[in-house]
Amino acid sequence: MKDRRIQIGIILLFIFFIAISSIYNLRKESQTVNVSIEYKEKTIAEISRIRDQVVAIRGLNITKNIDVRFVDKEWAIRNWAPRSTDVPEELKLRELFYKTTFLIDWNQSIVSLSQEWVGLFVAASSGYTLYINIDYFNPDSQYSRNVLAHELTHIMQYEHFRVNWPSCTDARNALATLVEGDAGLVQRLYCSHTKECEPSEPWSIDYNNLYLSFSAFPYIYG
């Protein structure tokens, strides 16, 4: 289950901040969740330490402060997942396409699938903001360090290689593949150099969940 959460955690940024945000107005509450001082300090210390190591590995700096926000599963679903009462027309059409091409069953919905996946993320980044899911993130664990190395690389990419995302699906997937390939490589180098974690297994096509595999294209081929 931990390995699954690592994979889910590092693909959520693409699935929800790129795929769904392009057609859905994401809600972002300013109020997040409260955590203990010990948990907060330990997590921020780990982020700072791993940030320095990722900077050394990638050879690029992160010059601005990272805004660390602590959230939980319910907050993530409430803010990032589409709501069944307010589904954009394009998302409805996408669901119809997936059903007619047998990527999902007729009794499934993209809304419920998205809510399940959003609720499983470990950490995610958007710009200079790093979200930590307190339901899964353990600052003392190897898999959390693994995820942090990946997300900190995304923040580095945001600073140095900011581009406008294409509107075409194929072009967007191609660019996302480059982005995720870079973050995945740095993540693996971090684990191999520091010996503080085990690199995640390469993502492969899951024929029992073709919708997830389709969404994870950049991670499979990146």
From TrEMBL:
Record key words, sorted? Membrane, Transmembrane, Transmembrane helix
State which residue ranges cross the membrane. Answer: 6-26
InterPro entries according to UniProt: eCIS_core_dom
Instruction: Note one Pfam family from the annotation.
Output: eCIS_core
Q: Where is the eCIS core domain?
A: 123-159
Name of the protein this chain belongs to: DUF4157 domain-containing protein
Species of the source: Fervidicoccus fontis
